[in-house]
Amino acid sequence: LSLPFWDPLPMKVVAVADVDAFLADPSSAEARTTCDDVARSLLQTGIVFLRDSRVSEAEASAFLDMLEDYFAQDAEAKRADERPELHYQVGTTPEHVEMPICKSDGECLDRIAKLSDENKPLEIRGADPKWRFFWRIGGRPGKSAFEDLNAEPVVPAAFPEWTPTMNNWGNKMLQSVSACAQMAAIGFGLEHDAFTNLMHMGPHLLAPTGSDLSKHTATDVPLAGWHNDLNLLTIHGRSRYPGLYAWLSDGTKMAVSIPTGCLLVQAGQQMEWLTGGAVQAGMHEVVVNQGTLNAAERARQMGRPVCGVTDSERVAGFVCFIPVTYARIERWRGLHRGARRASCAWRSVSVRRKPFA
Fold first, then answer.
1. Strand-strand pairing, 47-51 and 16-18
2. What is the torsion angle, in degrees rounded to the nearest 10, for the CA atoms of residue 288, residue 289, residue 292 and residue 296?
3. How far is CA 322 from CA 12, 76, 187, in A?
4. Which residues pair with residue 351 across a beta bridge?
5. Can you list the residues of the chain whose pLDDT is less than 70?
6. Tell me: the pLDDT tens digits for 141-185?
7. DSSP state, 45?
8. What does the alpha-carbon distance between residue 357 and residue 350 come to, in Å, rounded to a whole number?
9. Burial class (CB in 10 A: 0-12, 13-18, 19+), 223
10. Burial class (CB in 10 A: 0-12, 13-18, 19+), 37
């Protein structure tokens, strides 16, 4: 029996883009308007919702059911899937390994200090108390100098359905975020493949996390401290547990509620670099709130693992980034009044893993 998705009111300030209309006829007036909406939403907020009929709720439920069962295993069973010699770039990452750089980075702390009290993230108290699993999605180059980014996948022994389930969901997410990248490029006045060419053979990751909510029963506990992602774009599926917060480009904190039938895309550091800071990498955190605990209680009553799973895929570029698109994006913004001028003054912030701390 699958748990229900968490489905409060949507974040109305963020654009909802119809992928189906774009795929049906990219040259149509409706598709061009949608492309402009995607570009405007990324510029103004760093976030866009995608409505893509190729991604079904049944597939999402199968994926989440399996991941909840996986993360509910005892620590010893999950540690068999660790690959620390590959810097945890495949397989599982145990709890208390990923350390948000904002715990100690001076520029990040200054950025937090400038936020109003209602928009500040929770204090980062140490390494994140969550588990993660990295699964590669998409093709790989025949030769690479980065073996840890192209290592063989880790398949958990107790889950014979693991490979087809992960590949199916991961490829659906990659299809959707690739369409988003094309729509954004068109909206910025670039060639449709300006971003997807850079994504070809990139080290894309399906990167779900799991947190044991039988242990984390207090509210205002960060499960994933304030950070943004290194990659080009991050795409999230809908969750059964509330607790994900995202920051818009103007510093506004918002509780994320993905509309029914939609996915959430957030810009990463590579997108910020590539656009010369016009699109800012989106900050986010995952915390335990009362809604999280309520969802955990519903899971317990249904006989399901009390394990909060967040579903995301990170899509990366595979070249050295030069902000060649910046001037054209500045021109696009000049034609669309109301888009906020971005700043490159803040350094991008991501997660630092303990082996490199």
1. parallel
2. 80
3. 33, 44, 19
4. 100
5. 1-12, 144-149, 313, 315-357
6. 777 666 666 788 999 999 999 999 999 999 999 999 999 999 999
7. H
8. 13
9. buried
10. middle
